[in-house]
Amino acid sequence: MMRQFELVERVKRYDPGADEEALNRAYVYAMKMHGSQVRESGDPYFSHPIEVAGILTELKLDHNSIITALLHDLVEDTEASLEDIERLFGRDIARLVDGVTKLSRLELQSEQTKAAENFRKLVLAMSEDIRVLLVKLADRLHNMRTLNYVRDPEKRRRIARETMEIYAPLAERLGMQRFKDELQDLAFAELNPDGRQSILNRLEFLRRHGETLPNTIIDQLKRALDEEGIEAEVSGRLKTPYSIWKKMQHKNVAFEQLSDIMAFRIVVTTIGECYQALGVLHSHYSVVPGRFKDYISTPKPNGYRSLHTCIIGPERQRIEVQIRTREMHDVAEFGVAAHWKYKQGAMQIDGRQYRWLRELLDILEHASNPEEFLEHTKLEMFQDQVFCFTPKGDLIALPRGATPVDFAYAVHSEVGDTCVGAKVNGRIVPLRSPLQNGDQVEILTSKNQTPSPDWEKFVVTGKAKARIRRFIHMKEREQYCELGRQLLHKVFREEGYEFTEKALNEVLRRFKADSLDDLYAAVGKGTHTAREVLVAVFPGARTPARLRRKWPFARSRTRPAATKSTGLPIKGLIPGMAVHFAHCCHPLPGERIVGIVTTGKGVTVHTIDCETLEAFQDTPERWIDLTWDEEMNGAMHIGRLKVVIANEPGSLGSLSTIIGKNQGNISNLKIVNRSVDFFEMLVDVEVQDARHLSDIIAALRAMPVITSVERARN
Ligand code: MN
Q1: What is the DSSP string of 218-247?
Q2: Domains annotated on the chain, with CATH
Q3: pTM
Q4: Is 117 a catalytic residue?
C-alpha cells in the first residue's frame, strides 16, 4: 500500500503547485472514516482508494482528482456525508465525489438499465466533469485487478461483463488505450479463462522458438533510422491476449506470424520526423500493400494520431509499425488525460474550472470525415439529455430541462394525466423542477387528477405538450358545448319555438357540423349565433319577436337599410338615409351620440366619446347632431363587452346565466384571446340602454370567475 508521503511526492513531481495540505488531509480523513473495514482480499478497505489515487497519478491528474479518488467511496460506504466532504474539502471536490458516487449507484440498477449502449451514454453524460469518469475508470481498474478475491462467482462475472461492455469501450472512447487494454484483458480472464490460457500457451511456444527475434528487429530498425539521422525510440510490445483472441476470432485462423502478436513502435520528436521515418522504412523494406494508414492528417474520433504501416521486416517477418511523436504517444496511451497535461499551463493562467468534456469535444472537432463528424454530433446530442430512473430502475432519457411531468408522460400517458406530485431521490419536489442526471423519479398519481393547463408552461417534451393541449382542448370544447346549448335553449324558448334535438339534427349540414355537440360548440364559440340556428330550423323566426314589435330594423343584416325616420329611436336623422350603429363603440340609449355621414353608406351612429371620431375632426360638414328618442325606449340594442374570465369548467355557463338573470341576451360571443388561465372575449348583449348594460356589467364584476368587464371600444 502506498504511503501518505509517497502519494504526495508523486503528485508534487508532476504538479509542484499541488495542494499538499489538502492531499494529506484527504488521506488521513479517508483512512479514519474507512476505519477497520476490510476488502474481500483481507486488505484494509483503505488500500483501495489509495491504489485508485495511485493509478490517477500515472495519468498525472490534478490534485482535486487525486483527492476525489481518496474520498470516492466514503459517501457510499461510511458515515461521512456529502455535506461533510463539502465542509472539509470544498464544493468542487464534493461535486466530483458526488459524481463518482452516482456512477457507482448505477451499478446497482436493474439489468434492463444496462443495454450497453444506453448505459455507456448514461455514464458519459453523467460525468459532466470528465474527471469524474477518470476516477471511476481507475476505480474499476483497481477492482478488476483484485477481482479474483471476490468470492461470489456470479458477482465476478457480472463485474467482468460490465467492464467488457461498458467501461472498456468508454476508456477507448476517451482514447485511453492502456486502460482499455488492461480492463479488457482482466475481464477476458474472468469470462473466458480457457480461451485466454490457450493464447498464453501459444505465446509461450512462440517465444521459446524465436526468443531474440524482437530485439534483433528493434536493433535493425533503429540502425536504419540512425543512418538517416533520425533520432528515435524503437520498441516492440506484445499485444494483449484479448486483442489477439479477438483477431483470431475475426480471421478464423491460428496465429503464427509476429505481426499477429507484436506491434513495433517508433517514437520521434516532430511530425516531420514521423513522415521521414516512414520514408526510411518504406525504402529499406518491402511494404505490405493496403496496410498504410495516416492517422496524423486524419485523427481518430478519440484524438488518436499515428502513422500505421506493415512491412516485411529485417528478419523477413511481416511486422506492424506505429510511428508517432511523444505527445501523440501520451495521447494514445492516456487519451483525454494526456491532453489535459499538455494544456495544464493554459488552465492555470485563466484559473477557471477546467472543462474536460469541452476538451473532449475540442478533440472531436478536429475530426474531419463525415463518420467522425457523426460521432461528434452524437456525443453533443446526448449532452442535451438527462437520464433518469423509475423506482424499478428502468432508464428514461429526457431532454435537458425536462420536469417530473415530462417524466410521467414518458412512462405512460395515463401516468402523466393523473400525476399529482413527484418524489425525486425520495424527496417530494415541485412538478416544475428540472430533473438531473441520475435522478430516481417516483410519480405520485391520483385517479381524480386531470392535466393542469399550468403544466403546458414548463414541460419540454413533445409528448407531454401534445397530451396536455389535447386535454385542454377537450375541456374547452365541453364548455363551448354547454354554453351553446344554453344559448340555443334560450333563444328557442324566447321566440316561442320548441327546442328539439331532432329539429337541430336536420340542419347540422348547413352549419357544417358533424354532430349536435359540434353545433353546440360552434354556437358557444360564436362561429354561429343561436339566432342563425333558430332561423335555419324555423325560417319564420327571421325577425325576433320583440324587435318585430318595436324596431324592425335592428340587427337585420339581410334587409336593406332603407328606413323611415319614424321607425328609429333617434332624432335628427335625414329621412331616407341609411343608418348603422358603429361597431367601434356600440352606442346605447342614454349615451350622447353623433352621426357621421359617409357617401353611399348613410349615417353611422357613434357615441360622442368614440375614438374613431378623431378621424373626422377635419370634416365637420359630415357630422350630424343626433339624440335618442325617449319615447321609443323598450327597443333592444347591442352592447359589446370585453370580458376576461377564468378558464375553468363552467365559467362560461355562469357568465351566460348572470346575463340572462339581468334580462340581457347574449347575441354573439367571440373568444379573442385564450391563455391557459383565462379567456378574453367579446360578448354582444342585447340591452335596452346604457344603464341596462351598466347593471349587467356590475353583476358580472361581482362574479368570482370574472377578472374584468368593460365596454368594448374598438
Ligand atoms: Mn471504489
Answers
A1: HHHHHHHHHHTT---EEEEEEPPHHHHHHH
A2: 4-189 (1.10.3210.10), 197-342 (3.30.460.10), 569-628 (no CATH), 637-711 (3.30.70.260)
A3: 0.55
A4: no
